Automatic annotation (TrEMBL):
This is DZANK-type domain-containing protein. It comes from Magallana gigas (Pacific oyster). The lineage of its organism: Eukaryota, Metazoa, Spiralia, Lophotrochozoa, Mollusca.
Length: 104
């Protein structure tokens, strides 16, 4: 389920719209944006993933529906606990919701 603003809840917490499940013909394919593996930064995985999948079959990244939004990319910050941030950021975000880093 995905709202125009990237929410994956039944009702979007950002805009209040009811979120609808994408139709099967709306399945998107993009390169996997994951840059975190075994606790370290790596080059982008790049394996083609589909919006209907739950995990990347190459790097096992749990696919975020936000990754399919235009201009989305993985945050390169660090979480407060020291872990590498793997949140997906979109161009309309001023700061990462996981680590607080502003986008590049």
């Amino acid at each position: 389920m995905l709202c125009d603003c990237g929410s994956t809840l039944q009702y979007c917490s950002q805009c209040g719209k009811k979120v609808l499940a994408p139709a099967s013909q709306d399945i998107q394919t993009i390169p996997c944006p994951n840059t975190v593996e075994d606790g370290r930064r790596t080059p982008v995985c790049g394996t083609m993933i589909q919006s209907s999948n739950r995990f990347c079959h190459e790097c096992a990244w749990r696919i975020s529906s936000k990754a399919f939004l235009p201009g989305a990319a993985m945050c390169d910050g660090n979480k407060p606990n020291g872990e590498l941030c793997d949140n997906i950021m979109t161009p309309n975000m001023r700061f990462c919701s996981e680590c607080g880093k502003p986008p590049k």
